[in-house]
Amino acid sequence: MESGLQRADLDSDPICQFERWYRFACATEIPEPNAMSLATVDGNGQPWVRSVLLKLYDQRGFVFFTNFGSDKARQIQAHPRVALLFPWVAFARQVQINGRAERISTAESLKYFATRGRGSQIGAWASPQSQVIRSRALLEAKVEQIKQRFAEGQVPLPDFWGGYRVVPEHVEFWQGRDNRLHDRFRYQRRTDDAGWTIERLAP
């Protein structure tokens, strides 16, 4: 907080700047440094927000995974504009990302699914995410059923499960400072797709 964030310290590319902060967050050993809030909007204009985990990121955007029948997936299908927030409160930093969410390819989802633990793979098959269920016991019974179904060999990728990539249009880096005089810098994608403009915002 004492050193703050200066324009001269920023990378010209927000993904590279994010990587700097993300690596720092991982090095501090805070719980779940890849946890991010995902905001979506339903058909009535009602905002919804929940925590998801960042699993991949590159110059194309930020990727998380979910059941395609979940509330967030259905909301994204209808209204693909979303927002992400990385709330690294422990060291007075946050990163806000606004953009469009789009499904990644099945090949990309399969590549990630293969790295998950077997229990998580089975859980993806067993959970009818966001649907009403009568009891925990029924969910656990479904897990046992899936275990038996795939008792031999690898667990395949469910056709109802995969990743979304949030393609950023705005990225804001927020560094807390004393007396609420925070440092804020917003990257905005240029309309000609020739890089980014960077602006300092008032706290």
Explain this structure.
The protein is an alpha+beta fold and 203 residues long. It has 5 helices and 9 strands, in the order H-E-E-E-E-H-E-E-H-H-H-E-E-E. The chain has helices at 14-27, 71-78, 106-113, 118-126, 136-149, and strands at 35-41, 47-53, 56-58, 61-67, 81-88, 93-103, 161-175, 183-189, 196-201. Strands 1, 2, 3, 4, 5, 6, 7, 8 and 9 form a 9-stranded antiparallel sheet that branches. The longest helix is centred in the N-terminal third of the chain and has 14 residues, at 14-27. The protein is elongated and about 60 Å long.
Provide the descriptors you would attach to this structure in a database record.
single chain, 203 residues, alpha+beta, 9-stranded antiparallel beta sheet, 5 helices, 9 strands, 26% helix
> Which residues sit in consecutive blocks of at least 5 with pLDDT less than 50?
none
Question: Roughly how many Å is the radius of gyration?
Answer: 19 Å
Mean pLDDT: 96
Q: Supply the helix-strand structural class.
A: alpha+beta
- Topology, number of strands: 9
Distance between the termini: 14 Å
Helices and strands, in order, run as HEEEEHEEHHHEEE
Which overall shape is indicated by the principal axes computed on the Cα atoms?
elongated
Strand content: 25-35%
| Number of helical segments with 4 or more residues | 5
Main sheet overview: 9 strands, antiparallel
- The helical percent reads 25-40%
Short structural description:
This protein is an alpha+beta fold and 203 residues long.
